[in-house]
Amino acid sequence: MVLSEQEVSGAAGAPGPSAAEGRLEVGRIVKAHGIRGEVVVEAVSNRPERFTAGHVLYAGERAMPVRRASPQGGPDPAGRVSLARWIVSFEGVDDRNQAERLRDTVLHGDPLGHDDDPDELWVHELVGSELLDPTGRVLGRVAAVEANPASDLLVLENGQLVPMVFVVEAAAGRVVVDPPAGLLD
Fold first, then answer.
1. pTM value > 0.90
2. Positive or negative: CA dihedral 107, 112, 116, 118
3. Percent of the chain scored above 90 by pLDDT?
């Protein structure tokens, strides 16, 4: 199973759709970049199309069309590119002063279609789901999904952590995991 639209934000967990707007958190502006209004965005979405020219992101109710964007840092020696940070230029943000005022702004986007891969898991659909073992025993309820380099983690309401690698099935409102003995004792 693939975790998609990784709307995760560190210890805070994974935000779901914004109640008022039905939008998903996709990143946060961390700083200005250069003098022409560009910003560095720390992405919490694994969907690079969020940052293509013309795509509209939102800062609260303010629509922010992407003028141009590129992954920060470029490829490593093996040719891999990290999509965690983007240098983004937004329409209407034309100088460093305007860009500086956007620091710490949380960006949201409209939900994208997700019928490409039937094994894809969507964070906003996992949060609130009941967690079960393969026998049907209830293990808890998912409170958040936390980013982790080895494997994203399901955070249960009681604070326990379950690596996503143990998810064997997910359906509306329920997630089945097959953890090793002792993980949830």
1. no
2. positive
3. 50
